[in-house]
Specification:
Blueprint: E1 23-29, E2 32-39, H1 41-55, E3 70-74
Antiparallel strand pairs: 1-2, 1-3
The structure holds zinc ion (ZN).
């Protein structure tokens, strides 16, 4: 009998986050789910920032060959 059962921890910072505030991210490539995370609002914002950074084209680095279509689904 703990309150923890009602609020699972954030997958990133491990702080309890209520369902009302939690964001679930599902990252899919070619329609197969490759990542799913339940995040608190702060970690969600960080995750989106990181994701958008990684999506930026890199001028000097090796070319990333992306042969799949990826998308984020946020519940
Ligand atoms: Zn968090």
């Amino acid at each position: 009998m703990t309150d923890a059962e009602e609020s699972d921890p954030c997958d990133d910072c491990r702080n309890p986050v209520s369902d009302a505030l939690a964001r679930t991210i599902r990252l899919t490539v070619d329609r197969s789910q490759i990542d799913s995370q339940r995040l608190c609002p702060e970690c969600f914002a960080d995750w989106i920032d990181r994701y958008e950074d990684e999506m930026q084209p890199v001028d000097d680095g090796p070319e990333v060959i992306d042969d799949g279509e990826s998308e984020i689904i946020v519940d």
